[in-house]
Amino acid sequence: MFKNILLAADGSVHSKRAASKAIYLAQNVSGSKITLINVLDDLRNRKDILHETMEIEYDTSTSIQKEQTKEIEETIKEAGVSLEVKHVIGEPGPTIVEEANEGEYDIVIIGSRGLNPFQRMVLGSVSHKVSKRVKCPVLIIK
């Protein structure tokens, strides 16, 4: 059923729960593959970042984020599921949508942070953006 799974993950608790569901689905279909996409938000392109210290913080946060997804990668491999990893720099919502729509995925699995209405209005919800724009089914894990 869901043989080619796109897992959007950033190493957060929510994405770890999403990874567990992706593993569960993949283990129930022979020959399944999980593609883990980790989108590193390119803050350097935003006009409000003017200081060199912000550049250092960005480099540190991207290193930490890549390290955090390694735990998810190891969990998937230990489960015996085929895995491809893509680390991409860009805006998370549109980047995940582009990958999902250009790839031949049967489902996208993504965690939800559970933002309140004000946070959703100000920050926007990546999972909401993805679910509205992706052509295949989307499973949002809370």
TrEMBL record:
- Per its UniProt record, what InterPro entries does this chain match? Rossmann-like_a/b/a_fold (IPR014729), Universal_stress_UspA (IPR006015), UspA (IPR006016)
Q: Where is the UspA domain?
A: 1-142
Q: Name one Pfam family in it.
A: Usp
Q: Which family does it belong to?
A: Belongs to the universal stress protein A family.
Query: What is the protein name given in its UniProt record?
Result: UspA domain-containing protein
Species of provenance: Evansella cellulosilytica (strain ATCC 21833 / DSM 2522 / FERM P-1141 / JCM 9156 / N-4)
Q: What is the lineage of its organism?
A: Bacteria, Bacillati, Bacillota, Bacilli, Bacillales
